[in-house]
Every structure is written in structure tokens, then in C-alpha cells.
Fold this protein.
Amino acid sequence: RVVIEAQQINFIDYSGVEMLHQEARRLAGLGRSLTLRGARPQVVEELKKLEGPDNCPIDFED
């Protein structure tokens, strides 16, 4: 499991969203996962927009 401490991320643009989605999908193919810990609500919202909240390949935890 790959965990990114995301408390200090205030903004994420489309290229960042796309890169994290691609990495999460790559890791899932290896039986692993990508988790953002402590991400701000606006960052989580942007990450979930790309594929919709039910299809987001990234895990989130407080």
C-alpha cells in the first residue's frame, strides 16, 4: 500500500488528478493501492470528479 500524506496539498489541477488516477490504476494491477491521508475536502472532491465518486481508484483516510 502506498500512502501519501496529503494534509499540505491545497490545490490539485487536472494533470495532477490524472497522474494520481493512473498511478492508482497501475498499483491496483499489481495488487496494491494508493491512499491519500488527510486530504482536504476540496482536493478529494477534485480527485473524485474525473471518474465519479463510485469509480475513483484512490482511497482516502483521515
Summary: Residues 10 and 43 are 7 Å apart (CA to CA). DSSP finds two helices and three strands in the chain.
